[in-house]
Protein backbone atom coordinates (compact mmCIF):
# COMPACT_ATOMS: atom_id res chain seq x y z
CA UNK A 1 0.00 0.00 0.00
CA UNK A 2 1.31 3.44 -0.94
CA UNK A 3 0.96 6.22 1.62
CA UNK A 4 0.88 9.60 -0.07
CA UNK A 5 1.37 11.66 3.05
CA UNK A 6 1.78 11.46 6.79
CA UNK A 7 0.03 13.16 9.66
CA UNK A 8 -0.84 16.02 9.82
CA UNK A 9 -1.06 16.35 6.02
CA UNK A 10 -2.88 13.06 6.11
CA UNK A 11 -5.92 12.96 8.36
CA UNK A 12 -8.19 9.99 7.68
CA UNK A 13 -10.92 11.64 9.75
CA UNK A 14 -11.39 14.32 7.05
CA UNK A 15 -13.44 12.08 4.78
CA UNK A 16 -15.48 10.85 7.75
CA UNK A 17 -16.46 14.31 8.97
CA UNK A 18 -19.90 14.51 7.34
CA UNK A 19 -22.66 12.19 6.21
CA UNK A 20 -22.43 13.04 2.51
CA UNK A 21 -18.70 12.35 2.55
CA UNK A 22 -19.08 9.04 4.37
CA UNK A 23 -21.64 8.00 1.77
CA UNK A 24 -19.34 9.09 -1.02
CA UNK A 25 -16.42 7.06 0.33
CA UNK A 26 -18.30 3.89 1.22
CA UNK A 27 -16.44 0.88 -0.19
CA UNK A 28 -19.38 -1.49 0.19
CA UNK A 29 -23.11 -1.15 -0.39
CA UNK A 30 -25.96 -3.21 0.99
CA UNK A 31 -29.28 -3.26 -0.87
CA UNK A 32 -32.41 -5.43 -0.74
CA UNK A 33 -31.07 -7.16 -3.87
CA UNK A 34 -28.37 -8.74 -1.68
CA UNK A 35 -30.89 -10.66 0.41
CA UNK A 36 -32.35 -14.15 0.27
CA UNK A 37 -35.28 -14.72 2.64
CA UNK A 38 -35.61 -18.21 4.20
CA UNK A 39 -39.23 -19.24 4.84
CA UNK A 40 -40.74 -22.23 6.64
CA UNK A 41 -43.76 -23.98 5.14
CA UNK A 42 -46.47 -25.81 7.08
CA UNK A 43 -49.69 -27.68 6.25
CA UNK A 44 -53.18 -26.24 6.08
CA UNK A 45 -54.86 -23.02 5.11
CA UNK A 46 -54.63 -19.69 6.91
CA UNK A 47 -52.07 -21.14 9.33
CA UNK A 48 -49.31 -19.13 10.98
CA UNK A 49 -47.23 -20.99 13.59
CA UNK A 50 -44.69 -18.82 15.43
CA UNK A 51 -41.36 -20.58 16.05
CA UNK A 52 -40.65 -20.10 19.75
CA UNK A 53 -36.86 -20.08 19.47
CA UNK A 54 -36.99 -17.63 16.52
CA UNK A 55 -39.08 -14.69 17.79
CA UNK A 56 -40.65 -12.93 14.82
CA UNK A 57 -40.33 -15.97 12.50
CA UNK A 58 -43.32 -18.19 11.68
CA UNK A 59 -44.15 -21.22 9.63
CA UNK A 60 -46.77 -20.35 7.02
CA UNK A 61 -49.29 -22.43 5.13
CA UNK A 62 -49.20 -22.05 1.34
CA UNK A 63 -51.43 -18.97 1.27
CA UNK A 64 -49.16 -17.24 3.78
CA UNK A 65 -46.07 -18.32 1.85
CA UNK A 66 -47.49 -16.73 -1.31
CA UNK A 67 -48.24 -13.56 0.66
CA UNK A 68 -44.60 -13.49 1.87
CA UNK A 69 -43.45 -13.92 -1.74
CA UNK A 70 -45.49 -10.86 -2.78
CA UNK A 71 -44.07 -8.95 0.18
CA UNK A 72 -40.53 -9.93 -0.84
CA UNK A 73 -41.11 -8.86 -4.43
CA UNK A 74 -42.49 -5.50 -3.30
CA UNK A 75 -39.43 -5.01 -1.07
CA UNK A 76 -36.98 -5.78 -3.90
CA UNK A 77 -35.79 -9.07 -2.37
CA UNK A 78 -34.83 -11.23 -5.37
CA UNK A 79 -35.03 -14.72 -3.95
CA UNK A 80 -36.65 -16.92 -1.28
CA UNK A 81 -35.22 -20.07 0.36
CA UNK A 82 -37.87 -22.66 1.19
CA UNK A 83 -37.92 -25.22 4.02
CA UNK A 84 -40.84 -27.56 4.80
CA UNK A 85 -42.04 -28.70 8.21
CA UNK A 86 -43.15 -32.16 7.15
CA UNK A 87 -46.07 -33.59 9.18
CA UNK A 88 -44.80 -36.38 11.49
CA UNK A 89 -46.92 -39.07 9.79
CA UNK A 90 -45.15 -38.38 6.49
CA UNK A 91 -41.63 -38.76 7.93
CA UNK A 92 -39.86 -42.08 7.47
CA UNK A 93 -36.50 -43.75 7.89
CA UNK A 94 -35.55 -43.11 4.29
CA UNK A 95 -37.36 -39.78 3.96
CA UNK A 96 -39.29 -40.84 0.84
CA UNK A 97 -41.59 -37.82 1.19
CA UNK A 98 -38.68 -35.75 -0.16
CA UNK A 99 -39.33 -37.39 -3.54
CA UNK A 100 -43.09 -36.85 -3.56
CA UNK A 101 -43.94 -34.40 -6.39
CA UNK A 102 -46.86 -33.20 -4.28
CA UNK A 103 -44.97 -32.67 -1.04
CA UNK A 104 -45.16 -29.34 0.78
CA UNK A 105 -42.02 -28.05 -0.90
CA UNK A 106 -43.22 -28.76 -4.44
CA UNK A 107 -46.68 -27.35 -3.74
CA UNK A 108 -45.08 -24.18 -2.38
CA UNK A 109 -42.82 -23.86 -5.42
CA UNK A 110 -45.79 -24.15 -7.78
CA UNK A 111 -47.99 -21.79 -5.76
CA UNK A 112 -45.30 -19.09 -5.67
CA UNK A 113 -44.36 -19.51 -9.33
CA UNK A 114 -48.05 -19.14 -10.27
CA UNK A 115 -48.62 -16.03 -8.19
CA UNK A 116 -45.23 -14.27 -8.23
CA UNK A 117 -43.27 -15.63 -11.20
CA UNK A 118 -40.65 -12.88 -11.01
CA UNK A 119 -39.17 -14.06 -7.71
CA UNK A 120 -36.34 -16.60 -7.55
CA UNK A 121 -36.71 -19.80 -5.53
CA UNK A 122 -33.87 -21.59 -3.81
CA UNK A 123 -34.74 -25.04 -2.51
CA UNK A 124 -32.86 -27.02 0.11
CA UNK A 125 -31.74 -30.51 -0.85
CA UNK A 126 -31.19 -32.77 2.18
CA UNK A 127 -33.38 -35.39 3.81
CA UNK A 128 -33.57 -34.05 7.38
CA UNK A 129 -37.04 -32.42 7.14
CA UNK A 130 -38.37 -35.79 5.95
CA UNK A 131 -36.61 -38.41 8.11
CA UNK A 132 -37.67 -39.84 11.46
CA UNK A 133 -34.06 -39.70 12.74
CA UNK A 134 -33.40 -36.10 11.71
CA UNK A 135 -30.27 -36.86 9.67
CA UNK A 136 -29.67 -35.39 6.22
CA UNK A 137 -29.25 -38.82 4.63
CA UNK A 138 -29.81 -42.55 4.86
CA UNK A 139 -28.38 -44.19 7.98
CA UNK A 140 -26.98 -47.72 8.24
CA UNK A 141 -27.52 -50.10 11.16
CA UNK A 142 -24.74 -48.40 13.12
CA UNK A 143 -26.32 -44.96 12.62
CA UNK A 144 -23.69 -43.82 10.08
CA UNK A 145 -25.00 -41.65 7.23
CA UNK A 146 -24.16 -43.57 4.06
CA UNK A 147 -22.66 -41.31 1.43
CA UNK A 148 -23.37 -42.88 -1.94
CA UNK A 149 -26.87 -44.16 -1.22
CA UNK A 150 -27.75 -40.74 0.17
CA UNK A 151 -26.31 -38.99 -2.88
CA UNK A 152 -28.57 -41.08 -5.15
CA UNK A 153 -31.61 -40.05 -3.10
CA UNK A 154 -30.53 -36.41 -3.23
CA UNK A 155 -30.32 -36.55 -7.02
CA UNK A 156 -33.95 -37.69 -7.09
CA UNK A 157 -34.91 -34.99 -4.58
CA UNK A 158 -33.19 -32.31 -6.68
CA UNK A 159 -34.96 -33.49 -9.84
CA UNK A 160 -38.30 -33.49 -8.00
CA UNK A 161 -37.73 -29.85 -7.04
CA UNK A 162 -36.50 -28.84 -10.50
CA UNK A 163 -39.58 -30.37 -12.12
CA UNK A 164 -41.77 -28.37 -9.71
CA UNK A 165 -40.02 -25.17 -10.83
CA UNK A 166 -37.10 -24.54 -8.48
CA UNK A 167 -34.56 -22.02 -9.79
CA UNK A 168 -31.65 -22.82 -7.50
CA UNK A 169 -30.96 -26.28 -6.11
CA UNK A 170 -29.14 -25.88 -2.79
CA UNK A 171 -27.72 -29.15 -1.42
CA UNK A 172 -27.13 -28.66 2.32
CA UNK A 173 -26.25 -32.26 3.13
CA UNK A 174 -22.43 -32.27 2.78
CA UNK A 175 -22.24 -35.70 1.10
CA UNK A 176 -19.17 -36.19 -1.09
CA UNK A 177 -19.77 -36.11 -4.83
CA UNK A 178 -23.40 -35.01 -4.83
CA UNK A 179 -22.91 -31.78 -6.79
CA UNK A 180 -21.55 -33.59 -9.83
CA UNK A 181 -24.29 -36.21 -9.71
CA UNK A 182 -27.03 -33.57 -9.39
CA UNK A 183 -25.52 -31.42 -12.17
CA UNK A 184 -25.39 -34.46 -14.46
CA UNK A 185 -29.00 -35.38 -13.74
CA UNK A 186 -30.21 -31.80 -14.28
CA UNK A 187 -28.37 -31.60 -17.62
CA UNK A 188 -29.76 -34.95 -18.70
CA UNK A 189 -33.33 -33.74 -18.08
CA UNK A 190 -32.76 -30.46 -19.90
CA UNK A 191 -32.64 -28.24 -16.81
CA UNK A 192 -29.65 -26.35 -18.22
CA UNK A 193 -30.53 -23.11 -16.47
CA UNK A 194 -31.36 -24.52 -13.06
CA UNK A 195 -28.55 -23.28 -10.83
CA UNK A 196 -26.78 -25.11 -8.05
CA UNK A 197 -25.78 -23.17 -4.96
CA UNK A 198 -23.75 -25.60 -2.95
CA UNK A 199 -23.62 -25.44 0.82
CA UNK A 200 -19.91 -26.06 0.25
CA UNK A 201 -18.40 -25.04 3.58
CA UNK A 202 -21.05 -26.05 6.07
CA UNK A 203 -19.88 -26.53 9.62
CA UNK A 204 -21.25 -28.86 12.31
CA UNK A 205 -22.56 -25.93 14.32
CA UNK A 206 -24.54 -25.29 17.48
CA UNK A 207 -26.02 -22.28 15.67
CA UNK A 208 -28.57 -24.48 13.82
CA UNK A 209 -30.60 -25.25 16.96
CA UNK A 210 -33.59 -22.96 16.30
CA UNK A 211 -33.80 -24.10 12.65
CA UNK A 212 -34.27 -27.67 13.82
CA UNK A 213 -37.21 -26.45 15.91
CA UNK A 214 -38.63 -24.73 12.85
CA UNK A 215 -38.53 -27.85 10.63
CA UNK A 216 -39.45 -30.11 13.54
CA UNK A 217 -36.30 -32.23 13.54
CA UNK A 218 -34.67 -31.15 16.82
CA UNK A 219 -36.34 -33.73 19.07
CA UNK A 220 -35.79 -36.42 16.44
CA UNK A 221 -32.09 -36.00 15.74
CA UNK A 222 -30.08 -38.99 16.91
CA UNK A 223 -26.51 -38.01 17.72
CA UNK A 224 -24.89 -35.19 15.78
CA UNK A 225 -23.88 -34.38 12.21
CA UNK A 226 -20.11 -34.38 12.69
CA UNK A 227 -19.43 -37.26 10.27
CA UNK A 228 -20.62 -35.11 7.37
CA UNK A 229 -20.61 -31.43 8.37
CA UNK A 230 -17.23 -29.75 8.84
CA UNK A 231 -15.20 -29.35 12.00
CA UNK A 232 -15.23 -25.67 13.12
CA UNK A 233 -11.47 -26.00 13.64
CA UNK A 234 -10.83 -26.26 9.90
CA UNK A 235 -10.28 -23.64 7.20
CA UNK A 236 -8.00 -25.34 4.64
CA UNK A 237 -10.61 -28.07 4.36
CA UNK A 238 -13.25 -25.46 3.47
CA UNK A 239 -11.15 -24.45 0.46
CA UNK A 240 -10.96 -28.11 -0.61
CA UNK A 241 -14.74 -28.47 -0.27
CA UNK A 242 -15.29 -25.36 -2.37
CA UNK A 243 -12.80 -26.48 -5.03
CA UNK A 244 -14.51 -29.86 -5.24
CA UNK A 245 -18.01 -28.42 -5.59
CA UNK A 246 -16.94 -25.86 -8.20
CA UNK A 247 -15.21 -28.61 -10.15
CA UNK A 248 -18.42 -30.62 -10.09
CA UNK A 249 -20.50 -27.76 -11.48
CA UNK A 250 -21.73 -25.56 -8.64
CA UNK A 251 -22.67 -22.07 -9.89
CA UNK A 252 -22.16 -20.48 -6.50
CA UNK A 253 -21.02 -21.60 -3.07
CA UNK A 254 -22.22 -20.93 0.43
CA UNK A 255 -20.45 -20.57 3.75
CA UNK A 256 -22.53 -21.46 6.80
CA UNK A 257 -22.94 -20.28 9.55
CA UNK A 258 -22.13 -16.70 8.67
CA UNK A 259 -20.70 -14.24 11.15
CA UNK A 260 -18.40 -16.63 13.08
CA UNK A 261 -16.97 -17.75 9.71
CA UNK A 262 -16.20 -14.43 7.99
CA UNK A 263 -12.58 -15.59 7.69
CA UNK A 264 -13.76 -18.50 5.56
CA UNK A 265 -15.82 -16.20 3.33
CA UNK A 266 -12.81 -13.95 2.76
CA UNK A 267 -10.52 -16.88 2.01
CA UNK A 268 -12.97 -18.53 -0.37
CA UNK A 269 -13.57 -15.27 -2.25
CA UNK A 270 -9.83 -14.47 -2.48
CA UNK A 271 -8.95 -17.97 -3.64
CA UNK A 272 -11.72 -18.57 -6.21
CA UNK A 273 -13.37 -15.26 -7.31
CA UNK A 274 -16.74 -16.97 -7.69
CA UNK A 275 -20.13 -15.92 -6.28
CA UNK A 276 -20.07 -16.61 -2.54
CA UNK A 277 -23.12 -16.48 -0.29
CA UNK A 278 -23.37 -16.57 3.49
CA UNK A 279 -26.15 -18.06 5.56
CA UNK A 280 -26.74 -15.94 8.64
CA UNK A 281 -28.30 -18.91 10.37
CA UNK A 282 -31.09 -19.33 12.88
CA UNK A 283 -28.84 -19.16 15.96
CA UNK A 284 -27.33 -15.89 14.73
CA UNK A 285 -30.82 -14.47 14.27
CA UNK A 286 -31.77 -15.67 17.77
CA UNK A 287 -28.67 -14.03 19.27
CA UNK A 288 -29.47 -10.71 17.64
CA UNK A 289 -33.08 -10.86 18.81
CA UNK A 290 -32.06 -11.86 22.35
CA UNK A 291 -29.54 -9.03 22.59
CA UNK A 292 -32.11 -6.55 21.31
CA UNK A 293 -34.83 -7.88 23.64
CA UNK A 294 -32.78 -7.12 26.76
CA UNK A 295 -31.76 -3.74 25.42
CA UNK A 296 -28.09 -4.71 25.12
CA UNK A 297 -27.85 -3.43 21.55
CA UNK A 298 -30.06 -1.76 18.98
CA UNK A 299 -31.77 -4.33 16.76
CA UNK A 300 -31.87 -2.32 13.55
CA UNK A 301 -28.24 -1.26 13.80
CA UNK A 302 -27.19 -4.84 14.54
CA UNK A 303 -29.09 -6.18 11.56
CA UNK A 304 -27.57 -3.69 9.15
CA UNK A 305 -24.02 -3.87 10.54
CA UNK A 306 -23.90 -7.68 10.43
CA UNK A 307 -25.30 -7.82 6.91
CA UNK A 308 -22.84 -5.18 5.70
CA UNK A 309 -20.02 -7.26 7.20
CA UNK A 310 -20.89 -10.12 4.84
CA UNK A 311 -20.75 -7.82 1.83
CA UNK A 312 -17.42 -6.37 2.97
CA UNK A 313 -15.99 -9.88 3.39
CA UNK A 314 -16.84 -10.61 -0.25
CA UNK A 315 -20.35 -12.05 -0.34
CA UNK A 316 -22.65 -11.60 -3.32
CA UNK A 317 -25.59 -12.03 -0.98
CA UNK A 318 -26.84 -13.31 2.36
CA UNK A 319 -29.57 -15.68 3.47
CA UNK A 320 -31.11 -14.01 6.50
CA UNK A 321 -34.33 -14.32 8.50
CA UNK A 322 -34.11 -10.54 8.85
CA UNK A 323 -34.43 -10.06 5.07
CA UNK A 324 -37.81 -8.31 5.01
CA UNK A 325 -36.98 -6.15 8.01
CA UNK A 326 -33.58 -5.25 6.57
CA UNK A 327 -35.10 -4.37 3.20
CA UNK A 328 -37.49 -1.99 4.97
CA UNK A 329 -34.62 -0.42 6.89
CA UNK A 330 -32.81 0.05 3.60
CA UNK A 331 -35.74 2.10 2.42
CA UNK A 332 -37.40 -0.36 0.06
C1 LIG B 1 -30.51 -29.04 6.83
C2 LIG B 1 -30.26 -27.59 7.03
C3 LIG B 1 -29.92 -26.99 8.24
C4 LIG B 1 -29.93 -25.62 8.02
C5 LIG B 1 -30.23 -25.41 6.67
N1 LIG B 1 -30.41 -26.65 6.07
C6 LIG B 1 -29.71 -27.56 9.59
C7 LIG B 1 -28.77 -28.65 9.81
O1 LIG B 1 -27.86 -28.92 9.02
O2 LIG B 1 -28.96 -29.31 10.83
C8 LIG B 1 -29.67 -24.60 9.09
C9 LIG B 1 -30.20 -23.23 8.86
C10 LIG B 1 -30.29 -22.39 10.08
O3 LIG B 1 -29.85 -22.74 11.19
O4 LIG B 1 -30.85 -21.29 9.94
N2 LIG B 1 -29.73 -29.76 6.02
Describe the structure.
The chain is an alpha/beta fold. It has a single domain (28-329), classed as TIM Barrel. 38% of the residues lie in helices and 15% in strands. It contains eleven helices and ten strands. The protein has helices at residues 19-25, 62-75, 104-115, 147-164, 178-188, 209-214, 236-247, 262-272, 282-293, 299-313, 323-329, and strands spanning 35-41, 48-50, 58-60, 79-84, 120-125, 168-171, 195-202, 252-256, 276-280, 317-320. An eight-stranded parallel β-barrel has the order 1-4-5-6-7-8-9-10, surrounded by nine helices. β4 (79-84), α3 (104-115) and β5 (120-125) form a beta-alpha-beta unit. It starts with 18 loop residues before the first helix and ends with a helix. It binds ligand PBG. Residues 124, 126, 128, 136, 172-173, 208, 211-212, 225, 281-282 line the site of ligand PBG.
How do the helices and strands line up, and which of them pair or pack?
Elements: H1 19-25, E1 35-41, E2 48-50, E3 58-60, H2 62-75, E4 79-84, H3 104-115, E5 120-125, H4 147-164, E6 168-171, H5 178-188, E7 195-202, H6 209-214, H7 236-247, E8 252-256, H8 262-272, E9 276-280, H9 282-293, H10 299-313, E10 317-320, H11 323-329
Parallel strand pairs: 1-3, 1-4, 1-10, 4-5, 5-6, 6-7, 7-8, 8-9, 9-10
Antiparallel strand pairs: 2-3
Bound molecules: ligand PBG.
Amino acid sequence: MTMTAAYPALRLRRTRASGWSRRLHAETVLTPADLIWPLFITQGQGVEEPVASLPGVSRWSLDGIVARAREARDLGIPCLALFPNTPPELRSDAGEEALNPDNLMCRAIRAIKDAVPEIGLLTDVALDPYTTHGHDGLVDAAGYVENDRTADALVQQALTQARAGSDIIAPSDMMDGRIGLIRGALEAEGFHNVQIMSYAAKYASVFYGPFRDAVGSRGLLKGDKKTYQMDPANAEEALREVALDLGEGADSVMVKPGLPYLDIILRVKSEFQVPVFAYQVSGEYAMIEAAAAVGAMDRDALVLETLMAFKRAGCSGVLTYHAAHAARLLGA
